[in-house]
Amino acid sequence: MADSRHIAGLAGPTLVAMTTSEALNLDIWAGVSPTLVYLNGLMLFVAGVAIIRTHNVWTRGWPVLVTLLGWGALTVGLLRMFAPRAPQLAPSGSTYAVIGLLFLVGGVLTFQGYRRPGPRDRAA
Question: Does the entry feature the keyword Membrane, yes or no (predicted)?
Fold first, then answer.
């Protein structure tokens, strides 16, 4: 549980900040160079591998969000590394829906990462 809370305390605020800034500046991806897309993918891949190596926990409850975040980052990172010339996000309803979902996941992770530990947390 300590690993879950530690990673959630790092990844949650990062997701909240990233999704908020991307929702406000989605147009920056319109003319981005494939090199930057590749580097973004490389960073996502490394972050995903780091999360999976320390937290590959498949359980009921919020800690599975950390594991899913790791696998998602690894997958998106690989896609961006192997297809850096693919079309990037365009402002649309589905794009904002995905950003909103990631914002909510970030909010849950932030809450879980910074809340006061309860008796169940200490026992684990």
Answer: yes
Q: Which residue has the higher pLDDT, 116 or 50?
A: 50
- Number of compact structural domains in the chain: 1
> Which residue, chain included where needed, has tokens 């690989």?
78
Please give the Cα distance from 114 to 103 (Å, whole number).
16
What's the pLDDT score for residue 28? 85
Distance, CA of 66 to CA of 54 (rounded, Å) = 10
Looking at the predicted structure, is the pLDDT value of residue 123 above 60? no
Instruction: Give the angle 15-21-24 at the CA atoms, nearest 5°.
Output: 135
How far is 14 from 27, CA to CA, in rounded Å? 20
Helix, coil or strand: residue 60: coil
Tell me which residue range forms the domain holding 101: 2-123
Instruction: Say which residue the tokens 């990631």 belong to.
Output: 102
16-25, 51-60, 76-85, 88-97: the lowest-pLDDT one: 88-97
